[in-house]
Amino acid sequence: MIAPFAETSAVASGRDLGVWAELIGQTAAVATLQRAVAGEPHAMSHAWLLTGPPGSGRSNAARAFAAALQCSFGGCGDCRECRTALSGAHPDVTLVRTELLSIGVDEVRELARRSAMSPTLGRWQVIVIEDADRITERGADALLKSIEEPAPRTVWILCAPTADDVVATVRSRCRLLTLQTPSIPGVARLLETRDGVEPELAAYAARISQGHIGRARVLARDEGARKRRQQVLQIPFQLHGLGACLAAAAQVVEASTVEAAEATVELDASERSALEEALGFGTKGARPRQAQAAIKELEEQQRARTKRFQRDAIDRTLTELTGFYRDVLSIQTGSGAQLINEDLKPQIAVLARKSTADSTLHRIDALLACRAALEGNVAPLLAVEAALIALVEG
Could you give the count of Cα atoms lying within 13 Å of 182 in the half-sphere of its Cβ? Predict the structure, then answer.
């Protein structure tokens, strides 16, 4: 059996901690999952809802739990069951992560059908939905029946930022487990040991990512991502009037559009090629019936994915700006908290003296409202324009 999880040794002794090694700062949550894996009385549930802020490791925790349920040693991390479960290759572990804006009823029904099957090789039939907050209402209705009447050896693991992001009827039938934001030193140590990042850069990436493990890794390994972030942090110093706000908003949306296109262009082409090959394009004879409908459906899915990638890119910009104004507020209130953007402290201090804490709070609220508007399907340019104008007005 693997040793109980302990945060203080999580990075140093990752091999001993098996599948739990990368769950930094989640001592209590991991202990709960380990008790369930061990079969302690009243510790197991047929449906779990893992929540936590972005970067807390919800998806990693869900995958680790799925692997541990299949592992004869409680999640050793080395056996075939662990490796295949973590990678998504285990026949009794289904990992669902949508690149679209939502998870519809048809996909949920297919998951429900799969959940009713008995395990083929493993100990459990495990269904992991990493974006449970994106399940539509009709999809939630289809999911509810499977959760209410589960098969004996089936476990559902749903992930969402908060419990309120999941339909009430579904979340009320799940066991809630909340993860915390990892500590910045813990994230830095993980970058050093797992990714080989040099200590100074690891500490910097961990701090500016505000403990978001995935974002920290990108910033540590991608100089381009660090440069894009620096460009975003210049926006507050450029907003001197309505024209500047509109120009900056257009630049933010254009940059997000380019980033989304770069992230999807090769995948789109690969999917199109695979579909055309499956439909028999390029072979002798007429095109297969309904071929155009299939291509149209693929194109719609790809547009939806690109739209989500664009929204995600804008959201990262808004997150960086929110952190910037959090630093401004920290100086204005004299909180003494470490600044996220310590390297910009002189410029931030100048900006802080030109405003008040109340105005800064209004600016932060405007950025949060913009994020909500984008989730509500408001046109990105209009939403960003409104937010940047609010930054000037205070």
Answer: 33
